[in-house]
Amino acid sequence: MTLALPPRAVRPPAPAPSAAGLHATARIVARADTSGAVRLPVLDGDGPLALRRIRAGAGQARVCVVSAMSAPLGGDRLAIEATAEAGTALHVTAAAATVALPGRTGETATYDVRLTVGEGARLDWLPEPLISARGSELRMTTTVELAPTARLVLREEQVLGRSGEETGALRSRLTVRRAGRTLLDQETAYGPGVPGWDTSAVLDGNRAMGQLLVVGPEFEEEPTEVRLLGGAPDGEPGDGPAQGVLAPLAGPGALATAVAPDALRLRRLLDEAARAVAG
Length: 279
Fold this sequence. Notes:
This protein has 279 residues and is mainly beta. Helices cover 6% and strands 46% of the residues.
């Protein structure tokens, strides 16, 4: 007698390792409770983006972004979403600089920052510099949605190459909308494949550039005054010629833009702009 045996189950072959990079999205939400205190009902790190609470004063939540591994590498798709809901104050900083590195695939990495600020809320987005290492290729976007009475302080610093190193390719776009209307939309590109980025018309040998954006309804009544940054004030001896400018936007805000030989001097210029706006 012949027995009919069931067909042998065939285990499907294990999928080949993906050549694509890491995909990760970290999320932060600040919300006011009935007592007026600001809570963080969503504090969700992911992949290399770890989030840590920082002790803060009354009425404000503070978060630090900590890198859990080297990222972004070529092919990585990273994102951070931060929301300050109505009536809250959220302060976000970082523990260290972010270094864009080449990956195994040669693909472009992306790093997307999406910020939302509700009515009467304030968001301070103050990360450490982004460093474009040799051989890396990164496209970074920052998109901000502001309610009409929202306030924003956003600092963005970029350094082309580590010490003594050539830069990678870096493209960056910043888009800010207030009450659904565009307040600022700009794009920059540096490094291999970008014509003229290192000429006297653009960076003129500098390797650090950044900006400080401050938005709030108070600028509608009292726009900030144009101010040169880094020069000698009132004819007094200084460090050299101006390397930045603080100017009002065509809307309720002020934008400081600066270039410098290194990250330390860039931070000094942006701190100067922050004091000018606060004063």
